[in-house]
Amino acid sequence: MYDVKSKDGTEWFYSETVKKHFFEPKNLAKTKEESEKLTKEADGIGEEGSPACGDMMKMWIKVKDNKIIDCKWQTFGCASAIASTSMFSTMITENGGMEIEKALEIKPQDIANRLDGLPTRKFHCSVLADKALRAAINDYYKKTNQLDKIKNDRIKIVDKILKITDHDIEEAVLDGARTFEDLQKRTKIGIQDKTCIPEAEQLLRYYIEKYFVKQTISQ
Ligand code: FES
Q1: Topology of domain 157-210, per CATH?
Q2: Does residue 17 have a pLDDT over 90?
Q3: Which class is domain 11-151?
């Protein structure tokens, strides 16, 4: 039922693990009462929207000795967002909780590996959870007065004529761009402002490395 083909003939396959986490998501805040309680008791709260699809994610965390000991979430996202956030929240809280710095290093590829695969075009859904976690951790740092640790994502304009930003390049990579030609096809970057091409190529490599180069997660 969940194995479908897109127009270009690409197979879309949801593994048994994805289906399990979609139908029985872990750490989901199921009711309004639960989310209100979490809002009162959480050490950090984060909320993020996906520029790629407009879906939303809210996350509540509890932190002890620099480890994330609890992570609950709610989303208006798709099946992939539900399954990948269920797995992501499991990964960062299992075995007594992951250190904050390690949790921030988890890549979509790591989540996909634990899910026994995720369609590449759905990787941006798992990034939604990562961004909500970042926001929750920043909120925790703010509440605990560790202001020097807060990391803000500043937007930088790369193509000065078409006003294409580093975030547009990031979204294009999450949407499947792997070469400069792919990137240009999706964003039109560098067509008029040719001076930005070296920086655009560098950012392309940076985001591919950030999201898709495999790494091993250790506690
Ligand atoms: S399509 Fe929006 S979260 Fe998956």
Answers
A1: Arc Repressor Mutant, subunit A (1.10.10)
A2: yes
A3: alpha beta
Lookup: tokens for 92: 């960062």
**Distance, C-alpha 138 to centroid of its chain:** 15
Strands 98-99 and 157-159 turn out to be unpaired
Q: What are the b/e assignments for 108-126, b being 16+ CB within 10 Å?
A: bbbbbbbbeebbbebbbbb
Q: How far is the CA of 127 from the centre of ligand 1 (A)?
A: 10
Residues of the chain with CATH 3.90.1010.10: 11-151
* Residues facing residue 45 across a β-bridge: 60
Higher local confidence (pLDDT), 39 or 6: 39
Contact 184, 157 (CB under 8 A): no
Distance from Cα 137 to the centre of ligand 1, integer Å = 22
Catalytic site positions: 53, 125
When pLDDT is averaged across residues 96-112 and rounded to a whole number, the result is: 91
pLDDT at 53: 80
What's the pTM value of the predicted model, to 2 decimals?
A: 0.78
pLDDT of residue 219: 40
